[in-house]
C-alpha cells in the first residue's frame, strides 16, 4: 500500500561462536507505521536491534534507509541516519536537567564553539521538544525528580530533537503504570500521524496488537510470522513464538481446598505508605494484590517480610506474632520473598547458579560451631530443585547467573526459596521480564505449590495475570485496601476502577 | 555432574592465580640462575622474614575486599600492637607470663580496632575507605603518642628467640592461612561472605546475617594484622610505633594481584599468598641487581597495574 519502506533490512544473518542467532530475517518499516516485534527472550530480537543500531555487524544482509545503503559502523551512525532507541534501562543522566539530557550529545555552543554552552538556545530547544511529547514540565528540572513514565517521554523527546525518523521501543511499558502507558500510546499515535516510523518490542501481546499496524514474530532467530496486526490473535502470536499451541496462557487448575489461616494481618499502618491494612490468607490459596504503581503493593510485601518497618499493626504467621521478628527469623518460620527487582535484590548477578540457589538454605547444611558445609548433600538438594523449577539444562551450576535469560534467572530465585520449604510465599511481579514459555512454567509451579498447601501472595501489574492465577484479589489504592474480589466474581473493569480509586468494592 | 560443578564453584575461577603462581616460580628459577646471591640460605631467610607478616596482612585484607570493603588500618594496627605488646612485656618483667600477657594485648588491639571498623561499616554504614582511613590516623597517632615516638627495646629473650624461629613462624602463618582458606571455601561463613560482597541487598533478603559477617571480617583482618605485628616485632627486636608504615600499598597490591577485586565478591587466600610471594621475590631480585629503591616501587606499581587491567578486561568481556 505504501510505496517503499523507509527502513528496509533484508536477509540479516548473525552467528556468535558458530551458533546462528539470526537466520535470515527481514525487517521493514514505513513512515507513519508501527511495527510490532515479538518473540521469546533469546529469539534474536536484541541481536537484531543491535544490528540496526550499529552495535553489531551482520554476517550477511543488506540494509537501506530511504533507498540509500545503510552500513553503520557505530551507534553514532545510527543516530546520524535517524534511528533512535528507547531502551528498558533509559540512557539518561539523573544528575542533569531535562534540557541538558535532551542535548547531551550536541550541546549548543556559543560563539565558535569554545566559549561555553548557549544556555538560552538549550532551553528553548528543550521547550519545543517537550511540547512535542506533551510533557508540561520545566526543562530545568533534574531528571531524578521525574517519574519513570516522564523519563521515558524525555527519552522520546530526545529522539525527536535529534530529528530521528525511526524510533525503536524496547519493552517500553514494563516499568509504567496504566495511565502512563496510555499516555505513551497517545504520543506514539501522534508520532505515527506525523510520519515517524516506529518499532515496538514487547512481551505484552495485548499492547502489541492494540498499538501496531503490522506484527512480526521471531522464534530462534527465524521469522515465523509477519502481517497486519488485525490478522492475529494473542493465542496465534503465542503459538508462533513458542512453536507449540498454548490453548491457555495459564495452566489448568485442580480443585483446591483452602486450609487454615496461615497469615493474618491487622491494622498495618505506615504513614504515607500503608493505611490500616487487614486481611488473612489461608493455606492452599493464591491471594492477589492489585493496584497501580505506588498504591503500596510492594511496600506491603516488604513490611510483611521484615525488609521495611511499619509504625503500627500486627502480622501473625501460623499463629505467631512476627511483626517484631527480624527478617532472618521470618525466613526460618517459612516465609519467602521474591522481589520485584531481580538484579538489585534477588540475585548476586556475578555469583554462580549454585551459590545463588544455596543462599537461603545454607544454615541447614552447616555443621554446628565449625560451620563446615555438607557439600555433597547440598549439591544434591540444589540439583533436585533445579530440575523441579525446570532450570535450563544447558547451564552448569558454576556458571554465573548473569549469563541466564530472565526466565531462568527467576527460576533460580524460586529455587533458592523453595529449597527452604516455605509455607507463605510473597511474590512481587514473579513474571516480570520473563518470556512466555518460562511464564507458563512459573504459573504451573505456583499452582503446584498451592495444591501442596502453600499460601501465596502475588503482586502483579498485569491484571490478566492476577485474574488467571488468583483465588482472591485485594485491590490497593493510596496505601489502603479498597476492594476484595473472589475468583467467581472477577471482573476486569471493576477491579481496574477500584484500583484507580473510583469506587470501593466488596464481592 | 552437579557435584563436579559444585566443586568448581567452590574453587572459583582461579586460573589467574595459577598463572601468578607459575610466574612466581618462573621468576624464582630465573633469579636463582641469573642473579648471584638469590639462591642462598641467607636470602631465603630474608624473603621469609619480610614475606611472612605480609602474607598475614594480605590474607586479612583479602577477606575485607571480598566483602566489598577495604581496610586501610592494618599497618597502624601492627604498629600499635607492636608498641603496646613491647611495653607490657618489658614492664611486666620479661618472663613467660609477661610475654603471654603482651601477646594477648597485641591480639586485643587487632580485635578492638577490627570491631570498631566493622561496626562503623556494617551498622553505621560508613564507607569502609573513610572508616578505616580515619581509624588508621587515630591508631597510628596513638601508637606514636604512646611511646613519644621512641622505639621500645630490651624485649624479653624468650620472645625474640622464639619469634625468630623461622620454621615456627612459617608454620604459624601456614596454619592461619589454611584455616582462613578452609573457612572461606568450605564453611557457611565463607559462602555468606562472598554473597555479601556480590550483592549485599540480595544477601540481606535471603536471610544472610550481613552485619555480623561484615563485623567478623574486619575483626579477622585486625587479628591477622596484629599477628603480623607480632612477627615483625620479634624480627626487629623492638616495639616500633611507625612499624610497617610503607607496606600498606604492597599489601593492597598483593591482594589485587592475587585476584581480589575492589568491587567485592572475589578473592582467595591462595591468591593473596601468591601475590605476596610474587611482589616480595620481584622486589628482592631488583635489590640484588642493585636497582635503586625508587625504581623498585615503580616496577611494582607497573606489575599491579597490569594485573588490574587484565582483571577488568577479563570481567568486562564475560
Oligomer: heterodimer
Compute the separation of the termini of chain B in Å.
23 Å
Total beta-strand segments of chain B: 0
Identify the most extensive interface between protein chains.
Answer: A-B, 43 and 32 residues
Number of helices of chain B: 14
Radius of gyration of chain A: 25 Å
How many structural domains of chain A? Answer: 2
Task: Spell out the key features of this protein.
heterodimer, A: 507 residues, Rossmann fold, 2 domains, seven-stranded mixed β-sheet, 17 helices, globular, B: 318 residues, mainly alpha, 78% helix, disordered N terminus
Description:
The complex is a heterodimer of chains A (507) and B (318). Chain A has 507 residues and is an alpha/beta fold. Chain A folds into 2 domains: 7-242, Rossmann fold (3-Layer(aba) Sandwich), CATH 3.40.50; 261-334 and 422-506, P-loop containing nucleotide triphosphate hydrolases (Rossmann fold). Helices cover 32% and strands 24% of the residues of chain A. In chain A, a hairpin with a 2-residue loop joins strand 4 (60-65) and strand 5. The longest helix of chain A has 16 residues, at 178-193. The termini of chain A are far apart. With 318 residues, chain B is mainly alpha-helical. Chain B has a domain at 39-244. Helices cover 78% and strands 0% of the residues of chain B. Residues 1-13 of chain B have low confidence and may be disordered. The interface between A and B is large, with 43 and 32 residues.
